[in-house]
């Protein structure tokens, strides 16, 4: 049986739903106006900056982004193509640590990994320079359980900026803190490799986000320290952060909703390329326990998990049956799925 790892009241669907689909998969009229006006009405009723600002984060994030813009205009990407390729290489490396590691493995338990792969994922995740694994997993589980409500750390109904980066610039909404405390994190704390990474997060981050990625081009192909620093910190690091944040912002605002028209998350190709395979976000919110994070996804992260499963380091890869996906898509989707034309229009949609 496919586990629903989040909670009994999560919106995630399992095979059980298929058996009992008449009661569990409800058909509602698509109220597009309601969806479009949600952001506006939230702003009017709740206000924007009710919570206290984190000035340290505001200054740091703003300065880094100013440096990013300056570096993009002044850095000569053609002076040494190896250095430019290393920017892309580190985006993939860090991207796999985030998507394959802290997201699909530790948050959603969409597959299991042997200690060898978990060590690799800890190192790769550290190279993304984000919060420690405990904080990331807890926030993301809250995000799935209370998507786009006050308890969602990056509630997209508060607008693009808040869901992209604004949420990191202010204290959390009391509901986020309350719900975050209720999240069961025992599985993460039972993994000694994850616990080690949480305990030594600052030092691991320093080594794998900053030190080694900068040293590598200097010693491998005689890049200058200055260019190695600018390319890895001001360009690559900021790109990785923004690509990851775009899942919470772009992929909750723009795109289609083939699997559930009644939620904000969307399918967005730009986000998919930027995040090495996490842009099928409408699907992911409906089936968060699918190791592919997409119905058809054969992108970088999924292929790497498949590779590790071939050598035995990844196992118990979970995914829903095609029948369940099709049923959900027809009952709740917005009609944009490519299979929509191939199946009879459901009577429930005509009423
Ligand atoms: Zn989401
Ligand atoms: Zn997720």
What's the short story on this structure?
The chain has 351 residues and is mainly alpha-helical.
Structural features:
transmembrane, two-stranded antiparallel sheet, globular, binds zinc ion, lipid metabolism, mainly alpha, 351 residues, 2 strands, iron ion binding, disordered N terminus, 18 helices, Acyl-CoA_DS, lipid biosynthesis
Walkthrough of the structure:
This protein is 58% helix and 1% strand. The protein has one domain (55-332). Helix 5 runs parallel beside helix 13 (225-248). The protein has 18 helices and 2 strands. It is globular. Bound molecules: zinc ion (ZN) (2 copies). This is Acyl-CoA desaturase.
Give the biggest sheet. Answer: 2 strands, antiparallel
Within the largest sheet, what's the order of strands? 1-2
* Extended strand count: 2
* Molecular shape: globular
Specify Rg, calculated over alpha carbons.
21 Å
The overall average pLDDT, rounded, is 86
* Number of continuous helical runs: 18
- Give the domain tally: 1
Poorly predicted parts: 1-11, 13-37
H/E series, N to C? HHHHHEHHHHHHHHHHHEHH
The kinds of small molecule bound in this structure are: zinc ion
Q: What amount of the residues lies in strands?
A: under 5%
- By secondary-structure content and strand pairing, the structural class works out as mainly alpha
N→C terminal distance = 34 Å
Helix content: 55-70%
């Amino acid at each position: 049986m496919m586990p629903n790892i989040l909670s009994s009241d999560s919106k995630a669907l399992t095979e059980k739903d298929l058996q009992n689909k008449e009661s569990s998969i409800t058909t509602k009229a698509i109220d597009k106006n309601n969806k479009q006006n949600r952001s506006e009405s939230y702003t009017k009723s709740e206000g924007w900056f009710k919570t206290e600002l984190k000035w340290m984060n505001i200054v740091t994030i703003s300065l880094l982004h100013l440096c990013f813009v300056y570096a993009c205009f002044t850095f000569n990407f053609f002076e040494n193509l190896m250095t430019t390729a290393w920017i892309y290489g580190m985006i993939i490396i860090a991207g796999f640590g985030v998507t394959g590691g802290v997201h699909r493995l530790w948050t959603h338990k969409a597959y299991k990994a042997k200690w060898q792969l978990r060590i690799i994922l800890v190192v790769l995740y550290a190279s993304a320079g984000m919060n420690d694994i405990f904080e990331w997993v807890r926030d993301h589980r809250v995000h799935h359980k209370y998507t786009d409500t006050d308890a969602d750390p990056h509630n997209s109904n508060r607008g693009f900026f808040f869901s992209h980066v604004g949420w990191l610039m202010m204290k959390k909404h009391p509901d986020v803190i309350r719900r975050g405390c209720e999240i069961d994190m025992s599985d993460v704390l039972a993994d000694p490799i994850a616990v080690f990474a949480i305990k030594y997060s600052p030092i691991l981050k320093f080594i794998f986000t900053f030190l080694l990625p900068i040293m590598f081009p200097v010693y491998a192909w005689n890049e200058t320290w200055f260019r190695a620093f600018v390319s890895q910190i001001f360009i690559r690091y900021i790109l990785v952060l923004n690509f990851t944040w775009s899942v919470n912002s772009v992929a909750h605002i723009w795109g289609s909703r083939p699997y559930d028209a009644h939620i904000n998350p969307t399918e967005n190709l730009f986000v998919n390329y930027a995040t090495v395979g996490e842009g099928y976000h409408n699907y992911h919110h409906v089936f968060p326990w699918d190791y592919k994070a997409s119905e058809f996804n054969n992108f970088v992260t999924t292929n790497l998990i498949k590779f590790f499963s071939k050598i035995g380091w990844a196992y118990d890869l979970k995914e829903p049956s095609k029948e369940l996906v099709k049923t959900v898509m027809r009952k709740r989707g917005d009609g944009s799925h490519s299979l929509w034309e191939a199946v009879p229009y459901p009577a429930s949609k005509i009423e």
